[in-house]
Amino acid sequence: MKTPQTYPCTRCEGKGRLPHYANVLGGVCFKCGGTGRQKTRPAAPSRRWSVNAIRTTDHHDCVVFHVRAKTEREALNKAFAALSRAREQIYDPTTIRVTPWPDSIEKALGFSIEQRVHTGIATTNP
Ligand SMILES: [Zn+2]
After folding, report:
1. H helices then E strands: how many in the chain?
2. Regarding predicted confidence, which is higher, 13 or 117?
3. Alpha carbon of 114 to ligand 1 centroid (Å)
4. Residue 104 Cα to ligand 1 middle (Å)
5. Ligand 1 centroid distance, CA of 34 (Å)
């Protein structure tokens, strides 16, 4: 019989321990019980994508906002849905382009830019 396939635990990255929880039961990872392995295949990690679109007013190609998605297709779908919901069509939804946003930039900035939307999509009337 074949040993069932296991994957490195996503929470402790296969170490079986979480150093920042060392004060709780010696830092043993609850997810894998300290084995460092999990039976379920880890989900593809979601990452940040920057969404570009052509602004209808001046035809500039702008970064409109950022979305979190696992795949380029998912990012495109989310971006399209968000732009389609916009009260005013400032950006042409047919020109949407997504590019992977390096998380390193956000780490360097030290804050999340996710909510720093500058389109009018996120702004609501007072
Ligand atoms: Zn673990």
Report:
1. 2, 5
2. 13
3. 28
4. 24
5. 6
Distance 16 CA to ligand 1 centre (A): 5
Ligand 1 centroid, distance to 94 Cα (angstroms): 43
What whole-number distance in Å separates Cα of residue 5 and Cα of residue 38?
Answer: 9
Task: Answer whether residue 61 is part of any domain.
Answer: yes
The confidence score (pLDDT) of residue 58 equals 93
Task: With CA atoms as reference, report the closest residue to 69 among 102, 47, 96, 44.
Answer: 47
pTM, entire model: 0.52
Q: Tell whether 63 and 37 lie within a shared domain.
A: no
1 within some domain: yes
Render pLDDT for 58-84 as a digit per residue (tens, 0 to 9). Answer: 999 989 988 999 889 999 999 999 888
Residue 15 DSSP class: S
